[in-house]
TrEMBL record:
Keywords: Membrane, Transmembrane, Transmembrane helix. The keyword GTP-binding does not apply. This is Uncharacterized protein. The keyword Kinase does not apply. GO terms for cellular component: plasma membrane. The chain crosses the membrane at residues 20-39, 79-100, 121-143, 155-177, 184-203, 247-268. Pfam families: ABC2_membrane_2. One of its GO terms (molecular function) is ABC-type transporter activity.
Amino acid sequence: MLPFLGMLQLTIRELRAKKVIWGLFLISSLVLLVVTFALNLDVVDGTLASARLFGAETSGGVDLQNIVFAVQSIVAGTAYWLGILLALFASGPIFTTLLTKGHIDLLLSKPISRTRLLTGHVGGVWLAMFGLCIYLLGGIWLIMSIKSEVWNPRFLFSILIVLSMFGVMYGVIVAIGAFTRSTALSLIVTYGLIITSLALAGVQQITEQLGAVSKAVFLVLYHTLPNFAEVTTIVSKLSQGDPVANWYPFISSLLFGAACYLIGGIQFNRRDF
């Protein structure tokens, strides 16, 4: 257990040393400041009398809860996309740095198994991103709740979805990096899968236009690859307090991520560094 915790601590220290944590922390702080000063709500008897967001003023007479939930949905969706893309770009090089000659040799000389070494690294990255997710999304939730007096605790569940999907896509970096040691290729494949998910999200409309063979191929891709774009709907519904009717895109993405970590772990354990 101690070697695992040591590797976890080493990863967080490396993220801090490379200014990854500080950079994402500063961006998150800037977003919180912008939301704090850009959002002004005038509430009268639980009804929104007027609202000002980024200089644009909205007249009153609108149910306050609907406005707050709508804004939180937009914020959660934006944080889901931009937050994960930035986090992947910032943390992606950390894994390939782990595999560089000299660095990996030193770590493998320690009394720690390769499995614990890898899980400690992944756990450190996850833990750092979890803290940043709580800081950003939790901060936005707290600011909006205090200003509007509308408390929507289900919004906080979106933090778990954002972190989980970051973990899924980081699994791609681990798998590709374990085979190639290439940061560039790892990020290209990861971002490529995210872009591909935009097409996969239209599975019903697209498959109606395809022939039998093309439809079968497309469905295989849909059920195999991560449905990153489609999970945006789940994030939006959770942030608005609405029930989620279809969890399949999220569950299938988790399975894809688990497969990536398994493949990456096998290659990491068998590779001769």
